[in-house]
Design brief:
Structural class of chain A: alpha/beta
Helix content of chain B: over 70%
Oligomer: heterodimer
CATH superfamily of the largest domain in chain A: Periplasmic binding protein-like II
CATH architecture of the largest domain in chain A: 3-Layer(aba) Sandwich
CATH topology of the largest domain in chain B: MetI-like fold
Radius of gyration of chain B: 27 Å
Strand order of the largest sheet of chain B: 1-2
Number of helices of chain A: 20
Number of strands of chain B: 2
CATH topology of the largest domain in chain A: D-Maltodextrin-Binding Protein, domain 2
Order of helices and strands of chain B: HHHHHHHHHHHHHEEH
Number of helices of chain B: 14
Structural class of chain B: mainly alpha
Distance between the termini of chain A: 54 Å
Radius of gyration of chain A: 26 Å
Largest sheet of chain B: 2 strands, antiparallel
CATH class of the largest domain in chain A: Alpha Beta
């Protein structure tokens, strides 16, 4: 009897806790229910009797205090950010004060943003990759910068807009959202081919490969001809190491003249002819023993530094790491970077990097945020930031300010000259899922099995990727 | 009868026994040595890497060519350790104070006081240990933001309270102390009652002094958890006002790779307080584990 009573009490207690939790949950305002979103002025909401003449920003006074969430760490970057913010705070004519806050990694920021979208708690400026920003925009939570970028008073002049590398400028315009501009690039990195020049010379080549055929010939020769400067006891020699990373998939597909996305049809194109050719080529490298997989994070840096790896493809932001790795044993060999070997007339380089975006809040906060974004991406500030961060600048005109860096680091100059060939990965919601759950497993399958049908695998992957995209787009508010 | 064989047999057996014992001991020491190397190697690797150049860490050298002592200074400055170190100390002190207060009182209540629904409540408390931390992360975050219940000050984001209050009560610590308190003989309580003690006085003057070992164990577990906290502080702080050491350490991971030499130097700095606390409480910690029935 007593046991029954205890059981009854337990059931009632648990039920009441569950009900309580449900009741509490309903009190939490859903992002889209927040009143702030409706307060945000949107050009299309302007009175219909005179839409062209009315300037919705005419009477807006920029907010005095705004917050910027970023992911930058390290004393050099943080000092540079502090200086940029201080300069802006001291010089802007509107009295805007920006507070820059380190809010964790890209993923941390993404996770922090999701529960506060469309609430007053959002930061005024936030860093984010394009696919993350696209996910925010499923909730209609981001400010469309098109409203201000051409504004006669607050916008960018045509010269300022043209000064951006075209690929970088276009990257934050989202075809999925009717051409909305949801960000502006302050810096970029690029996938490049790292190569060991001394080893190439020993193999009888003057310089890096420019075509896939040359690449394969050199890589296969290196796999059976160790480099004289290799560290004793290090890994066996190999021509190329591939890390299972969707950015590598994009790099090779781009270099074969393809794309991962059709921006007219708004569909993934993982199974394009170029992608099939590119990945059949990579599969043959593995089948012929000229390539192997990177088995641990940044393991290609290790093998490259030890002189046992001839080629690797990676981000230009790794330049200092490769430099230090090569110099580690005191007898550095000659190395540099080049374009990914390509079948196209010009190189096509995979560029990426987070942009800065403005979450929807109030017109005053949005305007103040835009004015800071404009300042942060202006040519001189951009040059200052690129020098401090080690990223590439986004403005073409800053090259003249980089001569000292070009002289000191020829590899950086080589990579800088490739920026104009930039192309980007799809800025669509759900791209993280596609990267991890669709593309990367397919990459593994292709290189693990020399008899795998590349076309069939990519066809299946493409269907899956478009399914994920459709599921994401169905969530648009 | 020739007795020599009979006499020599025990001698031989003795010698064999002796050799067997030596071999047994040698095997034991070998196993212990291998175990010691396995446990010590990560520490050796950490210290060795903390004295290398970045290039040496990338190319996986075992020892640095020239020890880079400057890494410690660089790591300290790069990650703003002077500020974060103080934050970690304050957060840990606050958390431990609250943790000991709640754990001792709750452990005593569950272990020594009979009240209605005690077992049910204790069962519910233990059930909370089965819920993975990642599941409660977002609800806890919303709680701290003041979305679920009103909090003093509106929101606790970027405050000392967000970093300490959620960890001031812990089911495991209550369980551990309850196990120990329940074993204290009732005669002690009876004697104390005769001398006019109430529960609080009995707890403070009798139970706590004889429970140093489990209390120290709770202290050590709490200290380690609070000192090493990373994900929660990262989530609830957007400014560096209350950011702790571990978050500073995370700053050495960049997109293109980690600054391993600085990260290891920073790691050495961050584990020093843990080692000090461990050596100070080692005896009580071992006793605590042994006397509360937690050893495997």
């Amino acid at each position: 009897m007593r046991r029954t009573r205890v059981l009854l009490v337990a059931v009632i207690l648990i039920a009441s806790m569950l009900l309580g939790a449900c009741a509490k949950a309903t009190k939490v305002p859903a992002p889209t229910e927040a009143p702030v979103a409706t307060e945000a002025p949107v050009v299309t909401e302007a009175p219909t009797d005179a839409p062209a003449e009315v300037d919705p920003w005419a009477d807006v006074v920029p907010a005095k205090e705004i917050v910027w969430w970023h992911q930058h760490t390290g004393s050099k970057r943080e000092a540079s950010i502090a200086k940029i913010v201080e300069d802006f705070n001291n010089t802007n004519e509107y009295g805007i004060k920006v507070t820059a806050e380190y809010a964790g990694s890209y993923n941390d920021i993404f996770n922090k943003m999701l529960p506060i979208l469309n609430t007053p708690d959002v930061p005024d400026v936030v860093v984010g990759y394009q696919n993350q920003v696209a996910t925010y925009q499923l909730a209609n939570a981001m400010f469309d910068m098109n409203e201000l970028i051409n504004h006669p008073k607050y916008g960018l002049t045509k010269e300022e807009q043209d000064d951006f590398f075209p690929g970088f400028f276009a990257q934050d315009v989202f075809s999925l959202f009717g051409g909305q501009r949801l960000g502006l690039a302050p810096n970029r990195s690029m996938e490049v081919l790292y190569y060991n020049q001394d080893w190439l010379t020993e193999l009888g080549y003057d310089g890096p490969p420019t075509t896939p055929e040359q690449f394969k010939e050199m890589a296969c020769k290196a796999a059976v001809t160790p480099f004289s400067g290799a560290t004793a006891g290090a890994a066996s020699p190999i021509g190329y190491e591939l890390s299972i990373d969707t950015s590598r998939f994009a790099s090779w597909t781009f270099a074969f003249g393809g794309d991962m996305f059709d921006y007219t049809a708004n569909q993934f194109t993982l199974n394009s002819d170029a992608a099939v050719q590119a990945w059949t080529f990579i599969q043959s490298l593995f089948a012929d023993g000229c390539a192997r997989l990177v088995t641990e994070n940044y393991g290609d840096q290790t093998d490259f530094g030890n002189g046992t790896l001839l080629f690797t493809v990676g981000s230009s932001s790794g330049l200092p790491y490769y430099g230090d790795a090569v110099a580690a044993d005191g007898t550095p060999f000659k190395w540099s970077v080049a374009a990914i070997p390509h079948t196209t007339p010009d190189p096509v380089q995979n560029v990426y990097g987070a942009s800065i975006s403005i979450p929807k809040s109030t017109p005053e906060r949005e305007l103040a945020a835009w004015l800071f974004v404009k300042y942060y991406t202006s040519a001189d500030v951009n040059a200052e930031w690129a020098k401090a961060s080690g990223y590439f600048p986004v403005k073409q005109s800053v090259a003249s300010q980089f001569q000292d860096i070009f002289d000191a680091d020829p590899a950086y100059k080589t990579a800088f000259d490739l920026l104009k060939f930039g192309k980007f990965e799809p800025p669509v919601p759900g791209y993280d899922f596609v990267r991890k759950n669709v593309v990367e497993p397919v990459m593994s399958n292709i290189v693990d099995d020399p008899t795998a049908d590349v076309k069939a695998l990519l066809d299946a992957a493409n269907i899956e990727a478009n399914k994920i995209l459709a599921e994401q787009m169905a969530q648009i508010k | 009868m020739d007795n020599s064989a009979a006499i020599s047999m025990p001698k031989k057996a003795k010698t064999e026994n002796h050799v067997g014992r030596i071999l047994g001991k040698a095997a034991l020491y070998l196993i212990l040595l291998v175990g010691a190397i396995i446990f010590i190697f990560p520490f050796f690797w950490m210290i060795s890497n903390s004295l290398m150049t970045l290039g040496e860490t990338i190319t996986r050298q075992l020892v640095p060519k020239v020890p880079q002592w400057v890494n410690y200074k660089d790591a300290w400055e790069q990650a703003n350790f002077s500020k974060y170190f103080l934050n970690s100390v304050l957060v840990t002190l606050g958390t431990l104070t609250g943790l000991l207060f709640t754990s001792i009182l709750a452990g005593y209540a569950f272990g020594r006081i009979d009240f209605k629904g005690k077992n049910l409540l204790f069962g519910i408390l233990l059930a909370t240990m089965m819920i993975p931390e990642s599941v409660t992360l977002i609800p806890n975050y919303l709680l701290i933001r003041g979305n679920i219940i009103p909090l003093p000050g509106g929101t606790w984001i970027n405050t000392y309270w967000a970093l300490t209050v959620p960890f001031m009560a812990n089911a495991f610590s209550i369980f551990l102390l309850r196990q120990f308190f329940a074993q204290i003989p009732d005669e002690l309580w009876d004697a104390a009652r005769i001398d006019g003690c109430d529960h609080l006085r009995f707890l403070v003057q009798i139970v706590m002094p004889i429970s140093k070992a489990p209390i120290m164990t709770v202290l050590l577990f709490g200290f380690t958890a609070s000192w090493n906290a990373f994900q929660w502080p990262l989530l609830v702080t957007t400014r560096d006002t209350w950011r702790p050491l571990m978050v500073g350490l995370y700053g050495f991971v960049q997109e293109a790779g980690p600054w391993t030499h600085w990260m290891m130097a920073g790691s050495v700095i961050t584990i020093i307080p843990i080692l000090i606390v461990y050596f100070l409480t080692q005896k009580q910690f071992t006793q605590g584990i042994a006397t509360t029935g937690l050893k495997g």
